[in-house]
Amino acid sequence: MRPRASSLALLAVCLLGVSAVSHVEEKRSQERLFLSSLGLSERPRPAGSHQPRLHVPSALWRMFRAPGNTQAQEGDPCTVSEYGVRGNIIRYVRDQGRPVSGWSSSCQACLEKQLFFNMSVLQPVELLSLAQLELGFLWKPFRPAELLQHPRALSMSLYKVIRPTLRGADPQANRRLLVSQSVWLQPEPNSVTMNLTPLAENWRKVGHNYGLILELLPLSTDSEELLPFQPGNALMLEPAFTFPLIQASLVVVSLNLHQCRSRQKRSAIHLHVTPSNVCKARSLYIDFKDVGWQDWIIAPQGYMANYCHGECPFPLSESLNGTNHAILQTLVHSLDPHSTPQPCCVPIRLSPISMLYYDNNDNVVLRHYQDMVVDECGCR
Ligand SMILES: *[C@@H]1O[C@H](CO)[C@@H](O)[C@H](O)[C@H]1NC(C)=O
Ligand SMILES: *[C@@H]1O[C@H](CO)[C@@H](O)[C@H](O)[C@H]1NC(C)=O
C-alpha cells in the first residue's frame, strides 16, 4: 500500500509541529516551506512538452547515480569530486543566445553565435565554485569519403562582450578575445570545455552580463574548398563544407553553506523488537506524482522518506533515545496525564538524498538535499 499525498502533509505537520489549518491551505504552506528549504522561491513551472528542453547531460546522470551519492559519505559532504571543487548544487545552465545567424558581416566565411547564460538563477547566498563552458560539436559531413582525405578543422574564437553595440557601430570594438583554438571535426560528436569562473562571477552582478560571441572559421589546407560558395560553379550542387551543430551549456557548481552540514555517522546500536505502538520510524514512500511534482522533478520519481510515529511511554527506555528532559516529562505525565503530555516522537537522525530537476529557466539542476529521509526517531 502506498500512502497518498495526505501522508506527506501529515509527515510535514509532524516534522514541523504546525497545527492543522484548512487542508488545502496547509498543503500549500507546507509546499512553500519545503520548496524554500530546497532554495526555490516557488514551484518550478518548466516550459513543458511544447518547448524543447535541455536533455539531462550524461555527466549529471553519472553523478546522480554514483554509488554513495545518496548515502552518508565520509568526509566533506559539500565537495563535488567530479570537478574537484566545493559545492552542493550543480546546474547545467542552458544557452539562451540567439541561434546561429549565418554568414556574418564582420568576418567573411565565418559563423558567429551569441552565447548567453542567465546567472541570476543562482541565489545571492550561493558561492560560485566553478563555471565551465561546454561546447558540443555535432558534425555531419556531406561526403564522408572526402573527409578521410582532408581532415577538417575549425578555428574557434571565443569573445566576451563588454558592452552592447549600437546600431552601425563596429561590434569588434565591444568584445575581448578570451580564447582561440582549433577544433577538429569528426563524424563523432566532440566537445571543448573552458573554465570561465571569474567571468561568470562577474556576470552575477546586475548589468554585467552581455554574453559571449563564438566565432567559427573553417581552417583548410585546400583553398578550393571555399570556392563552391561562388555563384556559377555549377558542378558543386552541395556545399563542400557545413558547419557543425553547436550545443553550449555552462556547468555551474555552487555552494550553499546553509545546506552544508556534515553528516553524522550511523551509530552501531541496534533496536530490538519493540511493541508496534511505541515510537519508531515507519516506512513511507513519497511518490512525487502524488504531490503533483512529476513535471519538474526528473529523478528520483519518489523515495523512502519514512516518518516517526508512536508513543513515548513511562518509563522511557534507552532505545527511545529520549533526552533527560523527555525522561522527566514522561515521569510527570505518568503522575498526572492531564497536566502534561507525553514527549513527542520525532526524527533524531535524517539523511540526505540527491534530486535532479528543471528550474524555472529550464536548466537542469543536480542538488543534494539534507534531512530528506528519517533514519531514526526518538522521544523529545
Ligand atoms: C534571467 O532570469 C531571471 C530569473 O529567472 C529573469 O527574471 C530575467 O529576466 C532573466 N534575464 C534574461 C536576460 O533572460
Ligand atoms: C534510537 O537510536 C538507536 C541508535 O542510535 C536506533 O537504533 C534506534 O532505532 C533509535 N530508536 C528509535 C525509536 O528510532
TrEMBL record:
Main location: secreted
Any one cellular-component term (Gene Ontology): extracellular space
Subcellular localization, as worded in the UniProt entry: Secreted
Stored Pfam families: TGF_beta (PF00019), TGFb_propeptide (PF00688)
GO biological process, one term: tube morphogenesis
Keywords: Disulfide bond, Glycoprotein, Growth factor, Secreted, Signal
Top-level taxon of the source organism: Eukaryota
The UniProt record lists the keyword Transmembrane: no
Residues in the signal sequence: 1-20
Molecular function terms from GO: cytokine activity; growth factor activity
TGF-beta family profile domain ranges (all copies): 263-380
Alphabetized SUPFAM superfamilies for the sequence: Cystine-knot cytokines
Family affiliation: Belongs to the TGF-beta family.
Protein name per the record: TGF-beta family profile domain-containing protein
